[in-house]
Amino acid sequence: MFPSLSSTAVVALSLCSAFGSASVLPRASKQVYPGFKNLKYLFTLGDSYTQTGFNLTNGSPLPTSGNPLGNPVYPGWTSANGPNWVDYLTVEFNKTELLTYNLAYGGATIDADLVTPYTPTVLSLKDQVEGLFVPILGPKPSYAPWKSSDSLFLIWIGINDIGNSYWNGDLENFYAVLMDEYFALVEKLYTTGARNFVFVNVPPVDRSPLTVGQGAESVALEAEAIGIYNGMVETRVKALKKAHNDVWAQVFDSNKLFNKIIDNPSKYGLKNATGYCESYTNGTPAQDTLYDECLIPVNKYFWLNNLHPTAPVHKVVAQELAKTL
């Protein structure tokens, strides 16, 4: 069974100038993105849309040649009832072997002190960066000797931040606080050597069965919140590149992609893009399981349950991400 998971300073480089003038301090040299085929390491962070159940610290197999995702056994513990976008990007749409360290955790918010997750044990993006990546992978250990030039950082966060806050009002100010924390964490990744980034924006979960089932007002409020949040991500990514001329960064528009699939599901081999079947909610024995009461196989639904898309949707995400890369 593939179980479903619950929903979920700019650091200056101080260089001594022989001329004693700050005006002649050199900026970091421009780094050129090496291209997808030249990447060796992927570091992924986020929530249940990204999680595969990877454990960095319990002694389980870590990513290595022939087992690029490490633990658990492929495709891992995903919310997709099969492989998710990280799985597909690593093993199907990759251009070369990619060793993928997936630190994402189901239910994650950016910072649990700002938006409370569904349970206290959830590892927020802050936990993933400060508690796992920076101290363990940041020093480039012998088993993961990554370089700025051969690694890519993919972050998909915000779904739970919005889902747990969109009705609160004053979103412009609150999401600005969230962005401050989000990109402060990105700066911490930068200090370890991270230079290549993809930020996945928030998909239209206002069209999910969870929100639609709460009525038109909820749909409108969440759609507005997503628009504000995604606009701020775009602005912060531009600022990141302006602050660091050696950073390559892109925003991947999952919102646009999900809308395309939902609006024309048959183009993507799907038959139902608005509802889900209760019998499939917690996962099925196979990716194409058919229960009579559900009328169509699980992989013909867009939604596995009230918030999480099925593996075929994740496959499209990975395919389009690969084009971006």
From TrEMBL:
Transmembrane segments: none annotated. The keyword Signal applies. Residues 1-22 form the signal peptide. It comes from the Eukaryota. One of its GO terms (molecular function) is hydrolase activity, acting on ester bonds. This is Carbohydrate esterase family 16 protein. The keyword Hydrolase applies. Keywords: Hydrolase, Signal. InterPro entries: GDSL, GDSL_Est/Lipase, SGNH_hydro_sf. It holds the Pfam family Lipase_GDSL. CDD domains: fatty_acyltransferase_like. SUPFAM superfamilies: SGNH hydrolase (SSF52266).
